Amino acid sequence: MKDLSELQGQIDSIKAEIREKAESVARNSKDLYEMRKSFLDSKQGKLSALMKEMAQVPGDQKASFGKAVNEAKQWALGFFEDIDKKVREQELKLRYESEKIDISMPAKKKECGNLHPITTVRNQLIDIFTGMGFSVYEGTEIENDFYNFTALNTPQDHPARDMQDTFYLSPEFLLRTQTSAGQIHVMESTKPPIKIVSPGKVFRSDDDATHSPMFSQMEGLVVDEGITLCDLKGSLDMFVKQIFGEQTTTRLRPSYFPFTEPSVEVDVSCFECGGKGCKLCKGTGWIEVLGAGVVNKKVLENCGIDSEKYSGFAFGLGLERIAMLKYGINNIKMLFESDLRVLEQIDD
Ligand code: PHE
């Protein structure tokens, strides 16, 4: 048999145990939950277990016994609730502390991709020429000898073939050395008026600071009635003003290409010094930018175009050369090495 004073003793020691453990053992809400269970769980809880001893309590004391145990339970519930609140507050404080953001810290720089300078120049040139009514024709990088040379008035054994060291894939096929090959395709398949630009990669066995075995050109071709060298000069003047600045002018110098007659080398007035002479223009006031000329009648005839009725002009420029001039790059390799330190400085 149990009596009430014995029970009260048990209750007091459980309370003391709860107080002590809650302070020292329960450091987080999970520990506290486990501990709470060990006292209040309806099956294993120490306080709940007291109720099971009811059977051993004399009948007249049962009511007081039950009341005492229930009071102890209520106290424990309240006690755990208070501690739980404190523990959770503490946990939240720690979390805020660890997740604290220093809004005064400098932001991380986001690296942003850019178009390659050659792509940028190509897009700019296409913009300028399409603005003048040209359309874009893209040829193929593998050509046969006929389109790259023969039809352009450069038959086998013609000395002008030496101007361009060619990569042959077979006796017939080669990597095009010039976008001029595209002229023939266009003139074969289109009746004048023709007004196209043709950008693309070209290949020559050539390698130094200003030459690379692979580089990019853009061809221009206009064929219509009454086209003269003046039309060429007018179009190129408009082009250089847009790409190098309003004050820029052009100068034509006699040159030779088998597929144009007359042929010219086109210089622009130096956009760095305005023509006074500087390092960029090597003191001359002029910078060579492209080759051009009036389409040779033989080339028109090769493509079945009546050279009595129609005439045309053509030009071919190197995109790397334009990019190097525009961005002050002195070695063509910089345009192919993809060194971010270089590319980052070129942002147009
Ligand atoms: N195809 C010539 C070259 O690559 C450039 C050019 C094109 C010259 C059109 C005249 C007319 O050097």
Layout of strands and helices, then pairs:
Elements lengths: L3 H21 L4 H12 L5 H7 L9 H37 L18 H15 L3 E2 L5 E3 H4 L24 E3 L4 H10 L4 E10 L10 E11 L4 H16 L5 E8 L2 E10 L16 E10 L1 H6 L8 E8 H9 L12 H4 L5
Helix pairs in contact: 1-4, 2-4, 3-4, 5-10
The chain binds phenylalanine.
What does this protein structure show overall?
Strand 6 and strand 7 (260-269) form a beta hairpin. This protein has a 7-stranded mixed sheet, with helices on both faces. It has helices at 4-24, 29-40, 46-52, 62-98, 117-131, 145-148, 180-189, 229-244, 297-302, 319-327, 340-343; strands at 135-136, 142-144, 173-175, 194-203, 214-224, 250-257, 260-269, 286-295, 311-318. The relative contact order is 0.10. The termini are far apart. The longest helix is centred in the N-terminal third of the chain and has 37 residues, at 62-98. It folds into 2 domains: 4-99, no CATH class; 117-343, BirA Bifunctional Protein, domain 2. The model has no long low-confidence stretch (mean pLDDT 91). The protein is 41% helix and 19% strand. The chain is an alpha+beta fold. The protein binds phenylalanine. Phenylalanine binds at residues 178, 180, 219, 257, 260, 291-293, 314-316.
